[in-house]
Amino acid sequence: MNITDVTVRFGSFTAVDDVSLKVAKGEVTGLVGESGSGKSSLARAAAGLTPYRGTISGVARGQVQMVFQDPYSSLNPRMSIGAAITEGIRVPRAQRPTELARLLELVALPASYTDKYPRELSGGQRQRVAIARALAARPQVLIADEITSALDVSVQGAVLNLMRDLRTELGLTMLFISHNLAVVRYVCDTVAVMRHGHLVESGPVDEVITAPRHPYTRALLDAVPRLGRA
Q: Sign (positive/negative) of CA torsion 180, 40, 60, 75?
């Protein structure tokens, strides 16, 4: 997916200002920055959820799926887990039960969860359902927007490990958004750093972390004890 000269405005406020970014096929690109940096606005533009100026190419229409920060608000509380996931499945009706079982297995949830409702699940389990629902459409690009920040610390690692496993198993192309460079380093191949709607630095994740060029990147590193200080 190629994001070229993309600008996102909300009235007179410019959330994203002329940003270009490549999300290489089969790789995980991290997008990092503090709250208000514009990273989520850029992600929503890439997913077709927010109007923008510029060009987003290299991906078919409707082939970008997004997993949001709050797994509870992104799921319909009146729909069972099975119904929520099946809603996004794009295979013939007769094949949907088999596909639903495959998706639940991918995100390490038992088949018995198909009849449960979001209120019956933990935050980590609900986020796994949201990931399965996004994967149901077999997207060319998966966007993960701060998918662990609303979860208890005890389950954040399990969800990050799941994303790493899914990337390996499915060869996923991902845009992974976080404010935490430690998380980005664990999950991503490359990273782009945003500040005040601008892209200030990008490159291979280990290169950016071990030898940051921009003062803002260094400030983000300073917020994560011992990261990049081998």
A: positive
- The C-alpha atoms of residue 213 and residue 218 are separated, in whole angstroms, by 8
Q: How buried is 62 (Cβ within 10 angstroms: 0-12 exposed, 13-18 middle, 19+ buried)? A: exposed
CATH code of the domain made up of 1-63+140-230: 3.40.50.300
Kindly report the number of other CB atoms within 10 A of residue 175's CB atom. Answer: 27
Residue with tokens 């954040």: 156
pLDDT tens track for 13-35: 999 999 999 999 999 999 999 99
Domain positions in the chain: 1-63+140-230, 77-138
Give the burial string for 129-139 (b: 16+ CB within 10 Å, else e).
bbbbbbbbbeb
pTM of the model: 0.91
Alpha carbon distance 204, 176 (integer Å): 14
Secondary structure class of 183 (helix, strand, coil): helix
